[in-house]
Amino acid sequence: MILIDKALQAREDEARPIGVGLIGAGFMGRGLINQIVNSVPGMRITVVVNRTLEKAEKALREAGITDIRVVDDAAGVDAAAAAGAVAITTDHRAAAGASAVDALVEATGAVEYGCHVVVEGIAQGKDIVLLNAEVDGTVGPILSKRAKAAGIVLSGADGDQPGVQMNLVRFVRGLGLKPLVCGNIKGLQDEYRTPTTQAAFAAKWGQDTYMVTSFADGTKVSFEQAIVANATGMTVEKRGMRGADHAGHVDELTTAFDVEELERVGGVVDYVVGAKPGPGVYVLATHDDPKQRHYLNLYKLGEGPLYSFYTPYHLCHFEVPNTIARAVLFRDAALEPLGAPTVEVITVAKTDLPAGTVIDGLGGYHSYGVAERADVTASERLLPIGIAEGCRTLRDIAKDEVLTYGDVELPAGRLVDQLRTEQAAELPVMQPA
Q: Which domain holds residue 196?
């Protein structure tokens, strides 16, 4: 990580900035544009893709960019870049195909559309950063396999809590400790929040109401911890994770787990609500060497067997340029699946759903997501929540009932469903020993 600043400065000095194609000019996208334009040498925004061009243009102008050109294709992106302008377009294929783009950042939070962006980016040889845990948690393993086969870096993002956890995991492993719990610190958890209850908060911060609701109802943290599990090989203690209310410091969690059980299952992902230092992340790890445990005690980490490490913040878009640089300059992913998934995010009814209900989007009125072991998800044919949007229920579903594939009719012709089929065939879920 510390190498990145000098590497980027070298690209700036050589007048060879990394070209970034941003997909999605929402809340995170706007912040990332401003960060790259005003604070990151050796990197430039080449093109912004958004359904509404006015939003893309506004985000660029807010960052101080005035030479903005509407384009239709990759040639237009390259022509704008050659003239020192920034392109805007509604077509992600224009960004993926442009030679002036080195890396794509997928920041829409949409599953089906995000799948198309990643597949096209891989086909065009672009490194890709996912600010989209929903895509990663639904079909990340097969997309990662495709990317590796093509020599592409497909990475989760620094600054997002999963990326911060993975950086902490790598740091802890570098010290010679074994991470056994990866945790996320939340301020709120209420599965029954809706876009109506979260509208005022979303308006205050200029965020998407459905996205904000997915934070509150547990869907987002389930995706975040699922992709950490898939990147570390960890699992969950139970459906939905432990998710304890904990008003104290995360250091106090070192006595809350059975270390032998953690070792047996290979570690778990979890979250706590209300803990300090919020809204950060934590890793609980153990050390096999009694000599080193003596030193850890001297250095005020306690007597073990679990030791607490934490990062007291996650700075979202501020850190994403680090991921872009890691991918393009060092061929390193901040976060990527190891192979077949170990944890999935399944669909639970937020309210009674009569037969014939067409399920709305993530963070909506109809469902919330919870983390479940991938082997259970597969054996019981549970419906991943990344698949649920647009599905029509075939029977009455009761509130808090878990949905299965047999309960719904899938929309026709979706790429995400094709990728799920490919993932199941090429990366079959391992049954626990």
A: 161-314
